[in-house]
Design a protein that fits this description.
The protein is 20% helix and 17% strand. The protein is of the alpha+beta class. It has one domain: Endonuclease/exonuclease/phosphatase (Deoxyribonuclease I, Chain A, 4-Layer Sandwich), CATH 3.60.10.10.
Length: 422
């Protein structure tokens, strides 16, 4: 028989109560907070300028467009943000200025948002190829003619580039870039054909194909560390499938720029041909988490893209498309503007860009997570005209951008900083 002395009873009772008070969490790891929501967003901010260095000068002087863009970001409060059409400078001055003096300072009374991790990425735009890539008989030396013959359209190196802002650490040593991957090295590439000859796929000469880069800007795998886990942000901005001729060189390039990510995430044999700028071959690890983001310049059913271009990702077995980010302002603007919108087949609630009446509004900006990741709060920031925030997006000429911020929240079984959204 177990005999418990009277004076020991209070101690025993305290121990029993302490055990009862402990929460039962089957399989939980110490120090890990289950399922924090991490907000990923892409935003083509249209912060490009006509001359090299002008964006830095504008940001230093105080730029109203940048303030409006920053206010939208402060309203939406993404944890990881990709900004497209943001001019590149090698020293990262523009990225720092925008982060510190615009995002990090209250705009319109909104709470500032601070990103301790930010990176600007080099771009093929405006890098001279030395060849007559548009086949007009001359090698352009300035303006649009120069841009047409550059590796990616741009009137100076780095125009229309992109950058990443993150509240979570970026594993800089593990970043992979694919800026120099050659289009001709993609098996079965949709190389454009010169309609004036009988030879196939000969728009570009053998000498041009020996140096021609697939990416019109860059393709970048940015590993973001969220607690003990990593999510790969796959960032790009394929060329618009327009501004060409019957050879459809831009449309075909757009298709294959999208295909690069489709093969990269598929892995195995499908990705063996891919090599990065450090010479490492192959795709993403089979079990890796990822989010594909960017202005991909391809609508599922409308616009000028090659049929099936964006479906390479939307129908990919490793990609989750739904729930699709949407807005109330997209359908309203499509109805008000008319024009090409009247003949569009896509749901205007999914539109992400406000283009001209001859083109119509399109869904071209995407945030696509890996299949199996839990998604919530998908949205396109496009308020209706009577909403108090409509003035941030407006109508042409736009106070911020002709594109809309697109966001999703993904739940990850990891720990991380507390939510900064209110």
């Amino acid at each position: 028989m177990l005999i418990i002395r009277r004076r020991a009873l209070p101690i025993l009772l305290a121990l029993v109560l302490a055990v009862i008070a402990q929460p039962i969490t089957a399989g939980a790891r110490p120090g890990r907070r289950p399922h924090p929501d991490v907000r990923f967003a892409t935003f083509n901010v249209s912060l490009f300028r006509a001359e090299q260095g002008q964006l830095v000068a504008d940001l230093r002087a105080g730029d109203e467009q940048a303030r409006t863009v920053a206010e939208i970001v402060q309203l939406q409060r993404p944890d990881v943000l990709l900004v497209n059409e943001f001019d590149y400078d090698p020293r990262g001055k523009a990225v720092a200025l925008f982060g510190d003096h615009y995002l990090g300072v209250s705009q319109g009374g909104r709470a500032p948002i601070r990103y301790p991790y930010r990176m600007a990425f080099a771009s093929n735009t405006g890098i001279a190829s030395g060849f007559d890539l548009n086949n007009d008989g001359v090698i352009g030396t300035e303006g649009r003619a120069y841009g047409d013959d550059a590796f990616g359209f741009g009137e100076f190196p780095g125009q229309y580039a992109f950058a990443v802002y993150s509240r979570y650490p970026i594993a800089t040593e593990a970043i992979r870039t694919f800026q120099h991957f050659r289009w001709a090295d993609m098996p079965g590439a949709l190389l454009p054909d010169d309609p004036n000859t009988s030879a196939p796929a000969d728009w570009y000469s053998p000498e041009e194909l020996a140096v021609f880069r697939l990416s019109s800007k860059n393709h970048v795998d940015v590993p973001v560390r969220v607690g003990r886990d990593t999510v790969h942000l796959l960032a790009s901005h394929p060329t618009p499938p327009s501004f060409d001729g019957v050879e459809d060189r831009n449309g075909r390039r757009n298709h294959d720029e999208i295909r690069l990510w489709a093969d990269y995430i598929r892995g195995g044999r499908a990705s063996r041909y891919i090599y990065d700028d450090d010479g490492r071959s192959g795709g993403l690890h089979p079990g890796a988490r990822f989010v594909i983001a960017g202005d991909l310049n391809a609508d599922p059913v409308d616009g000028d893209s090659v049929p099936g271009a964006i479906q390479q990702l939307l129908n990919h077995p490793k990609v989750r498309e739904r729930p699709i980010p949407s807005s109330a302002g997209g359908p309203e603007q499509a109805e008000l503007q008319g024009g090409a919108n009247d003949s569009h087949r896509g749901n205007p609630a999914f539109d992400t860009a406000d283009f001209s009446e001859s083109v119509g509004n399109l869904r071209v900006d995407y945030v696509l997570p890996r299949n199996g990741m839990r998604v919530s709060n998908p949205a396109v920031f496009w308020p209706r005209t009577r909403h108090p925030n409509f003035d941030l997006v407006g109508t042409f000429p736009f106070p911020s951008s002709d594109h809309r911020l697109v966001r999703i929240d993904v739940a990850l079984p990891v720990g991380g900083p507390p939510s900064h959204r209110r």
